[in-house]
């Protein structure tokens, strides 16, 4: 560790592995260390199943659950938007050559005690049980407007200014009711609260458009998920970093981030100090540089049947908008199964998660758990959420945010691209990736 690096990355959570890959691709000399013996950090996939039971002190696995090594259980499961930033990163960096993806079968939203398929094209909107006949027509007109909307072409705006018109005003313009606004904002635009309603509509319209474009790629839902679990993603980006000269050290404790005159100069492990110009890390490596911004509850549920009322989908996402259950934050449900090589045949892994609002987190996800039907085993965790206390520009220590309760990667990608820009002073240039280096034809 006695060499000097442009950057040292601490932790192998997905955020840190993506950043490591991006920095290496951009020509930086990178050392990547993690105190754990495995990739993934908080976002690891646990296999065999016995290890998950041991982690939660849950006794022994049931004989009917098959072989423990047939299971790969994500601690923080999330889906990838087919046309989203993370897939763009995967494609442009060539990491897709290490991974296989399969689309998620269904995307659903909760309304007045029932779950409905999320309509994202005109045909589905007209067939949906979410809306009455006249509302369907209004929603169809809204979707057509969004698809044709181009922020750079005022001719497509139809009296909507993306920088001035609020999203609430757009809903009113198309006569959409509260329920339709709920699923549009939360299940299509993937906002986690209702704060967006009073803000300029441009970003929300772009999010809805991305949802529609993602859906157009695969048809059933806009989401993808890697075979063998999310643990494959950090390893894919680690390989990318290595190809571009990055050095990896697992099972390497980090005792101290070393500073001189308020600026980082290295990282100490035992008696060794690796010198560097910058450090990128998850909150656990810089506890004095983060603040707690809340908590998230996650409940991993093992079930031996598809989630009821999802057309027997082998994989699915359900969003429960906060308004529907009198909350400030949405509740998220994701479900995967043997179709993605993460569970034994006939078994499903469902996760229910939300941002904690009360002193009784388990009661907050009760409505989500009830949608799953009989649960054979559950593992509950409540984690603190952290955010950096500053941008890192003076110290050159750039700390990522904790993974939120959402069941998709959009907020994680925003964090990655923001950290990269703060650290390098520029947006990530996708054209810098030399695909021939990755062995592509």
Automatic annotation (TrEMBL):
A matching Pfam family: GDI
Intracellular or extracellular location(s): Cytoplasm
MF terms in GO: GTPase activator activity; Rab GDP-dissociation inhibitor activity
Transmembrane intervals: none
One GO biological process term: vesicle-mediated transport
Alphabetic keyword roster: Cytoplasm, GTPase activation
GO cellular component, one term: cytoplasm
InterPro entries: FAD/NAD-bd_sf, GDP_dissociation_inhibitor, RabGDI
Functional description taken from the UniProt entry: Regulates the GDP/GTP exchange reaction of most RAB proteins by inhibiting the dissociation of GDP from them, and the subsequent binding of GTP.
Sequence similarity: Belongs to the Rab GDI family.
PANTHER family named among the record's database cross-references: RAB GDP DISSOCIATION INHIBITOR, RAB GDP-DISSOCIATION INHIBITOR
Record-given protein name: Rab GDP dissociation inhibitor
